[in-house]
TrEMBL record:
Pfam families: HATPase_c_2 (PF13581). SUPFAM superfamilies: ATPase domain of HSP90 chaperone/DNA topoisomerase II/histidine kinase (SSF55874). It comes from Streptomyces zaomyceticus. Keywords: ATP-binding, Kinase, Nucleotide-binding, Serine/threonine-protein kinase, Transferase. PANTHER family: ANTI-SIGMA-F FACTOR RSBW, ANTI-SIGMA-F FACTOR RSBW-RELATED. This is ATP-binding protein.
């Protein structure tokens, strides 16, 4: 557990990765386990279930892109704080992701960043820094606000 700049507790999990074989499924499983530990799974509502599905799809997209375009991810970092999940995928590739302009939606492939742009609350990429080669692609997914009342059903009498 770490403390954020605003004094709130954040939960951080890291998964070191080597190569591309099984990277996407390992990262999805790692993320699903983290979401379950934080109470996102099982989902209380359909809306929460959709956000969990979005988060897992987005992890697949950014890890898959690292496999296809950067020789594979080196590390997956999950930061959970106040109902928000930040996903960071580090790789050794120097090229930052960019949207393809004028790409037809009817052509296969090349739609991952459009999915990312539509489903993530925010996303981007940055150099690793400290003279390290490569980049970190990050995204954020927020859990829908929970209603102020308890939605659990009463046990049958």
């Amino acid at each position: 557990m770490a403390e954020s700049l605003d004094g709130h507790r954040s939960h951080v999990r890291r998964l070191e990765l080597f190569g591309t074989l099984g990277a996407v499924s390992r990262c999805r499983d790692f993320t699903a386990e983290a979401l379950a530990d934080r109470g996102w799974i099982p989902a209380e509502t359909d809306e929460v279930g959709e956000r969990v599905g979005d988060a897992l799809l987005l992890v697949s997209e950014v890890v898959g892109n690292a496999c296809l375009h950067a020789g594979g991810p080196e590390e997956l970092v999950l930061r959970h704080e106040r109902g928000r999940l930040r996903v960071e995928v580090a790789d050794a590739g120097p090229e930052h992701p960019r949207m393809r302009v004028g790409r037809s939606a009817s052509r296969p492939g090349g739609h991952g960043l459009m999915v990312l742009d539509r489903l993530a609350g925010d996303w981007g990429s940055e150099d690793k820094g400290s003279g390290a080669v490569g980049k970190v692609v990050w995204l954020e997914v927020s859990l829908p606000s929970r209603p102020p009342w308890n939605r659990r059903r009463a046990a049958p009498s």
